Amino acid sequence: MSTLLHVDSSVRATTNPNPDHNSISKNIAFRFIDTWRKNRPIDEYIYRDVGVNPPDFITQDWVGAVFTPEEKRTPAQKETLALSDKLIAEVVAADIILISSPMYNYGMPAQLKAWFDQIVRIDKTFDFDLARGDSPLQPLLSGKTLIIVTSSGEFGFQKGGIREGSNHLTPHLLTLSKYLGADTVYEIAAEYQEFGDDRHSRSVADAKYRAERIATELSFPVVATSPENVVKNL
Length: 234
Fold this sequence. Notes:
two-stranded antiparallel sheet; 6-stranded parallel β-sheet; 7 helices; globular
């Protein structure tokens, strides 16, 4: 039995009165979830829509509480860190993590960044030791699989694409993935939304198909044997 953590970050809903406003990233992510749950209905499923219900931004009080030894924290400090503790516990429990994100201004939504800021926390998801020289930070979690679903209005953000240098979404997610304990990462991307032409339709259809393929592969682990520390574009 596995635990699947699903984090959506679009401010849009999956369905709207105007279908043109439906969240592409969420719909692709739910294609993955629907396929997974058909194959593994008994797995635990944790859902967070941080786009609609964003976590609090971290504050000076939050930082102060983090760097106060746990046994010396006041009740107020413990309350300040309660959400962070809960979000981290969900990540720790998860075997599979699915994150969907639209590209906002060439990066991730502020709501998703707020979620990461609550999770990437010293002595919880990483430790710090100057004895390691110029690499004092070390992630504490491992063994997880991360699926990243992205959507963008333009195109060519992949490696070697015409807008590779403007992609501050996927590289940021990949950098932070080690603090989620992700050893294996799959990427799914839908592009061309602002063009609204056949290229967009094909890109979305392809992304949904790949979401189904990856969900099918991962939900039958006897078939899925993936090397550690790889990024896959299936």
